[in-house]
Specification:
By secondary structure, the protein is an alpha+beta fold. It is built from four helices and nine strands. Strands 1, 2, 5, 6, 7, 8 and 9 form a seven-stranded antiparallel β-sheet that branches. It starts with a helix and ends with a strand. The model has no long low-confidence stretch (mean pLDDT 92).
């Protein structure tokens, strides 16, 4: 008889590592940086969420019947970046935010000028291939989180940027 641990090992093959991923911004809206800088500076993120809603149907005095409902996305994805002294990442995202709604005029750019797909790739253990690709469709920058500065600690500047999106596809 094969042991459960051997069966899991044989079935799983090589597990996907949480630290082998990359995020690609094919179109850096607002300028200030390039796609390779953003790819290198991305520090942490998560895979996009997806859920199916629930329809409940009461029936007599018994428990409610359950049926699958609509597809639901939170329509929000976040990524944390590390910043260098030249400020390339903050400049890039500030430029994008200005395109969405300008600080001085309170006027935004047309949708075609503020949206872009973002690609999140999982990479193989040997680093030679992409094992899965998540494409976030029609993203726009929604929020740049506050950056904490503190004389009492040692560290680097990290900040989180949140993007709204319409949907996502797995390929």
């Amino acid at each position: 008889m094969i042991s459960p641990i051997s069966a899991l090992s044989a079935n799983l093959g090589t597990p996907q590592r949480t630290f082998l991923w990359q995020v690609i911004f094919p179109n850096v809206i607002g300028g200030g940086s390039d796609t390779s800088t953003l790819l290198l500076r991305a520090q942490s993120t998560s895979l996009p969420e997806r859920a199916v809603g629930r329809i409940e149907l009461p029936f007599q005095q018994g428990p409610k019947l359950q049926f699958p409902g609509k597809l639901e996305y939170p329509h929000l994805w976040s990524c944390t970046f590390v910043e260098g002294e030249v400020g390339a990442v903050l400049d890039a995202f500030y430029g994008w935010a200005q395109k969405v709604v300008d600080d001085d005029t309170n006027i935004g750019s047309p949708k075609s000028q503020i949206i872009s797909d973002i690609i999140l790739q999982l990479v193989s253990t040997d680093g030679t291939s992409v094992t899965q690709e998540y494409r976030l469709i029609d993203c726009w920058l929604q929020k740049i989180d506050a950056v904490s500065l503190d004389y009492d600690t040692q560290g680097v500047i990290k900040f989180t940027v949140s993007f709204a999106y319409q949907s996502w596809q797995l390929s």
